[in-house]
UniProtKB/TrEMBL annotation:
Record localization: Cytoplasmic vesicle, Secretory vesicle, Acrosome; Secreted
Protein name (database record): Zona pellucida binding protein
Protein source organism: Oryctolagus cuniculus
InterPro entries attached to this UniProt entry: Ig-like_dom_sf, Ig-like_fold, Sp38-bd, ZPBP1/2_C, ZPBP1/2_N
Entry keyword set: Cytoplasmic vesicle, Glycoprotein, Secreted
Record flagged with keyword Transport: no
Length: 292
């Protein structure tokens, strides 16, 4: 297990993934960890007061380490350990107080956002609507086995004046592909290839291949083009990072967890799936989703 020691000079920051077991937070400094302690006694206090070892959510080991079994948002906060010990049998009792700030964190919610354009039927035509549904069904089926999902973000029909040509109707699609929890997909996946980033990368490649194949099929057609078809070269893609409401990234405040979505501290909040916690002097809790 990962073990974290305290400092007599400043509060040590500890990061625990939401709903996971925490590292062992030791009630010693690095120097004391390597020393012999006579008759040590440990006492921990957290955001809700004194922590007793019988507590179901937080345990104190026989050597004074604090361990959380299933870390919740509400457990984030300042934890203080009071250590009493004798350096030798003859010396008097010494006291030390160590502070930790323990933060819940989550993996970023990242996804690919695609835009594509199609030559379309007249904008008020029901054919455009049925085509949109069919396209989403095909794309969803394409990434289903990767435990990924497609979501339509925006669909608009516009009349476009072409260069040195007349008007034509075009559909502008914006959709996202994001990863589901691997165990929730149709084919539960447990090895390293199930990482969200790897599954998303495969899904991206399948989608790009699908649009490229549409161009190839149209190029081989002898008959006139269909009324609705993909416009070559219009597929664009961006990688988007987001944190869940109440969480944010801050490499300056959390240099040891720069790519983590760390719970917003008191004095800040994140109302949407943005990437940063915003300042809010009225916010007094960890994980604020509103500034009231």
């Amino acid at each position: 297990a990962v073990k974290i020691v305290g400092s007599p000079n400043f509060p040590v920051k500890v990061y625990v993934m939401l709903h996971q077991k925490s590292p062992h937070v030791l009630c010693v400094t690095q120097r004391l960890r390597n020393s012999e302690l006579i008759d040590p006694s440990f006492q921990w206090h957290g955001p809700r007061g004194k922590i007793i070892s019988e507590n179901s959510t937080a345990q104190i080991t026989s050597t004074g380490s604090l361990v959380f079994q299933n870390f919740e948002e509400s457990m984030s906060g300042v934890y203080t350990c009071f250590l009493e010990y004798k350096p030798t049998v003859e010396e008097i009792v010494k006291n030390i107080q160590l502070k930790y700030v323990i933060y819940a964190y989550r993996e970023p919610h990242y996804y690919y956002q695609f835009t594509a354009r199609y030559h379309a039927a007249p904008c008020n035509s029901i054919y455009n609507i049925s085509f949109e549904k069919k396209l989403l069904q095909i794309l969803s089926k394409l990434v289903l086995d990767l435990s990924c999902e497609i979501a339509l973000l925006k669909s608009e029909c516009h009349r476009v004046k072409m260069q040195r040509a007349g008007l034509q109707n075009e559909l502008f699609f914006t959709f996202s592909v994001s990863s589901l929890d691997a165990e929730k997909g149709p084919k539960p996946c447990l090895d390293h290839s199930c990482e969200a980033s790897k599954r998303l990368s495969k899904a991206k490649n399948l989608i790009e291949r699908f649009f490229n194949q549409q161009v190839e099929v149209l190029g081989r057609r002898a008959e006139p083009l269909p009324e609705i078809y993909y416009i070559e070269g219009t597929l664009q893609m961006v990688w988007i990072n987001r944190c869940f409401p109440g969480y944010g990234m801050n490499v300056l405040k959390h240099p040891r967890c720069p790519e983590c979505c760390v719970i917003c501290s008191p004095g800040s909040y994140n109302p949407r799936d943005g990437i940063h916690c915003l300042q809010c002097n009225n916010s007094l809790v960890y994980g604020a989703k509103a500034c009231i």
